[in-house]
User: Fold these one by one.
Assistant:
Number 1:
Amino acid sequence: MGTTDETLPFSTRAFIFQAEYDDIPAFRFFVISNGTVCGYLSLSLPMAIYHVIRKGAAKSRALLIFLDAIMLAVLTAGASTAAAIVYLAHKGNASANWLAICQQYQSFCNRVTGSLIGSFGAVLILILLIFLSGLVLSKRAM
């Protein structure tokens, strides 16, 4: 998503028709939120491996699940804001006089849509992992 841009072939020197991800603040938030979650998950992975090896770390496991839930909220917020803009790019909004731009910027829209699919896939995987972590934590507490 961070490298997504497209310039239309009929641009002139005076008028350049270009679409970049950082032109829209919702896309910037999408990239920042995905980067933040990716960084957090890469840092929490060694901690999760440590918890698999060590059996009696219930308090830090609960903290890890709590932080995972916060990251899930951040990831969902970023993907949802970008999805709203992508919907407008595909469909437009006649009452707000916003035109659909995906007929002109097809490559841009395809890359952004692919990024959204990946992000929502990560949301589903993170939900599953949080659920499984909570299940394991509750079974070990009993």
Note: Residues 106-141 form the longest helix (36 residues).
Number 2:
Amino acid sequence: MGALARALLLPLLAQWLLRAAPELAPAPFTLPLRVAAATNRVVAPTPEPGTPAERCADGLALALEPALESAAGAANFLAMVDNLQGDSGRGYYLEMLIGTPPQKLQILVDTGSSNFAVAGAPHSYIDTYFDTERSSTYRSKGFDVTVKYTQGSWTGFVGEDLVTIPKGFNSSFLVNIATIFESENFFLPGIKWNGILGLAYATLAKPSSSLETFFDSLVTQANIPNVFSMQMCGAGLPVAGSGTNGGSLVLGGIEPSLYKGDIWYTPIKEEWYYQIEILKLEIGGQSLNLDCREYNADKAIVDSGTTLLRLPQKVFDAVVEAVARASLLYIQPMMGAGLNYECYRFGISPSTNALVIGATVMEGFYVIFDRARKRVGFAASPCAEIAGAAVSEISGPFSTEDIASNCVPAQSLSEPILWIVSYALMSVCGAILLVLIVLLLLPFRCQRRPRDPEVVNDESSLVRHRWK
């Protein structure tokens, strides 16, 4: 198998509880990604008897980068272990100290957006907010920003202030921060966080990519590698009423105690969201047999801020049909539905614009966002277990002879480009409309001539004829 025939097999059985009998469920749900090539080619030793030769072939398949585990300098990775609280249903959040004197807030970790924002005013669903008047180091930048998500939106004032992360860093960092004064369906009942930390690329930052993101500022000021990693420990566990399943966010590298086995990487296709390339989907060991471009329409991303695995509608329909045919039930516990019975929900939902690998999948793995080498890595997480048995696994490589060399639709455009095109078209349409209005309002001056049946006197018709 050549370079294009190497791929990552990411079997998934995250926190969904498998209620069918074992004999009815011989194989898990599998989600293969295209594997990344190793960045530093090393001459592989001669394999010992019984060692799979394909693990060394072409410098592909697995790629371990232990150097990142100790390259962070000012960062203390061990101190970052268990620095997250929360669960997939309501998000995972990190404690931060903001301003001078410091005000403590709990900040949702979101790899699907790029703005750092905190509540800047009281709200009925949150217990605290950041009061800029109490901070001597806060500086306003003089403009507002509005950010819209798949669910909810907010508007806030943009400024900058000092931020400290108690678990992991001994110093403060000056970062851009939006203080939310108006929101809709953003702060929800039962949440334990009062801000959001967008960890995606600056391309997605609002109002423009020129607004430096939190992580870009941290990389520069703390002198850490351009890498972070996440372990979310809610797989297979009921959603605790207090939201304390927890996890770890390692800023600046990889913490070895948070994963088992090897790390498998897949390339980041475009640096806005963490967009990757899905090759195929299997249910119960059987492929859905869809064109791989269906899985990536119009993008496939890794997003900790999304609860479920979201699939394009056509893929979702095929998955539901396959799950029913294989007698597999992927369900997720729900709390508060009643006192005398348990309630569950399907861990997959349809999507209109993307395949989203959300917390439902991420909870089964230790996920590395290696921005420096433009790749996302997956490794088995030791906290993703039920009764001592792992709920997810990684294996590979596997043959991709029947898969297209490029599964990302060529016509896919990123959101910023679409906005630019939209504004350009609106400007052109506005200019044309202005010209037409001026032409309609100007008096029609011309010398009287004999009536000609071919002359159109109706002004609206005249406009239409001028378009011809």
Note: Helices lie at 77-80, 214-222, 292-295, 313-326, 359-362, 415-441, 459-467.
